[in-house]
Amino acid sequence: MISQCWPSSGIHDQPHQKIDGYSVVEMMQTDMKRNIGRRMEDFIVRKEIKRFHKLCDVGKIITAEIDISVLFPLVMDLTNTIMGSQRSSVFLHDKKTDELWSLVATGMKKQEIRIPSNTGVAGWVFNHKEALVINDAYRDPRFNVDIDCKSGFKTKNILCVPLINTQGNCIGVLQALNNSKGEFTDSDNLFLAAISDYVAIALDNARLYDDVKNYSENLQEQIIINESLVKLKNQLTKFVPQSVANLAETDPEKLSCEKIPMAVSVLFVDIHNFTGMTENYEQRMVNHMVENHFSNYLRCIYHHGGEINETSGDGIMVIFKSDTIEDYALEAVSAALEIIEENKRLNQQYTYPWGEIHLHMGIGTGEAYVGTTRMESALGERWTYTASGLVTILASRIGALSEQSRLYIGADTHKRIHEKIDCDFLGHYKLKNISEKVPIYHVTKLISSDCT
User: Fold this and answer.
1) Which CATH class is domain 34-216?
2) Cβ neighbourhood burial of 156 (10 Å; 0-12, 13-18, 19+)
3) CB-based burial, 26-36: b 16+ in 10 Å, e otherwise
4) What's the pTM value of the predicted model, to 2 decimals?
5) Is 265 exposed, middle or buried (0-12, 13-18, 19+ CB in 10 A)?
6) Reduced to 3 states, what is the DSSP secondary structure of residue 389?
7) What sections of 328-417 are H helices per DSSP?
8) For residue 149, pLDDT beyond 90
């Protein structure tokens, strides 16, 4: 091994000089690589130390602040800073209703979110008490698209960790959404878990469960409505009119009787540009919109004695019958106007990527044959309960003319209730497969309080 110093003329004077079998140039290249590697390691270490300092800030805030309404927005802001996330939220478990509810979610003001404790990514983490990293949210079946639909926020990736209190019980979850630098890593998981320890301690100290009880009592009525709507949505495609259910319970033999003539008003409602939505947007979000809107329309329909007769992907047919409702035409118009107002409310509450939802709405009035239609084959039989006749065709054709969630009615409907409504005469229209032109009216409001 050579021990003397290099000549003053520089190392390039002896480019082939060997030390332990390596040339001088090779040794210098190796040293440069090591120096670069050390600088990278130093950068990573400094970055992690900086994150630890910010983590300490979270601890200081929690120990200094008792007011939950002030505390958690601050914690969430620091969580976003530490994690590099666009949004973060805390979901807590409500024992009384077995739901997870959002105490705060950055970017959503003070909007509260409630979900069943066994659904979504938050539900999975809560029940398994394990952290979960999902770097493509819409491809994971555990992801609950409902929250994105309410907020208008597009979730890309999620890091979610359980909140474990000092007794070892899982009381909720903490999650960070959309890492600004790409995917969440194991290091991110460790930091969010550390933050969750602080959050769980703060919840214990503030006795948060007392507040949860107060929230649940105030929201009990809304919870009951939500549970009913969930059941209705799950059974939407199998829906049976209430009169048929009652008949099956009291006198099932009458179900096999032939259709009978009856005065009815038929309301058709369908969603404008539904095909375009289906072709161009996430199907789970489209399905959420259809089920959410139609489930809310059901209350308007039931309020006025209507029966859902048929459903399709984007539309419903509703019958208002003279044997159950005295002024069936007025009830049909009243239900349709309530649906228009409900649609306005839903457009304000939900933000979908395709924009506002607009409806086609038409009502026809006259005589129809109402009852069961039986179809038989070698494989069995299937029954449907429907109203058939020209009145249903007219209602469908009239509805197709409607735009911007406006209610159109035909001459027979107008004749029965023209003194009780404000409307504009639009003219005579040629409808598909109808030989003569049909007078069409645009209903703007009720002018009578008889139907409420």
Assistant:
1) alpha beta
2) middle
3) eeeeeeeeeee
4) 0.51
5) buried
6) coil
7) 328-349, 390-401, 411-417
8) no
Q: Does domain 232-446 bear CATH number 2.20.25.90?
A: no
392: amino acid identity, one letter: T
Identity of the amino acid at 256: S
CB 296 within 8 A of CB 368: no
How sure is the predictor about 83, in pLDDT bands with cuts at 50, 70 and 90? confident
Comparing C-alpha atoms, which of 435, 444, 434 is closest to residue 409?
A: 444
Of 353, 327, 355, 310, which is closest to residue 420 (Cα–Cα)? 327
Measured torsion, CA atoms of residues 136, 142, 143, 149, in degrees rounded to the nearest 10: 150
- Whole-number Å distance between alpha carbons of 139 and 156: 10
Residue 412 identity: D
Euclidean distance between CA atoms 12 and 206, whole angstroms: 71
The answer to whether the CB of 406 falls within 8 A of the CB of 361 is: yes
d(CA 334, CA 417): 11
Domain boundaries, given as residue ranges, for the chain: 34-216, 232-446
CB atoms within 10 A of CB 359: 24
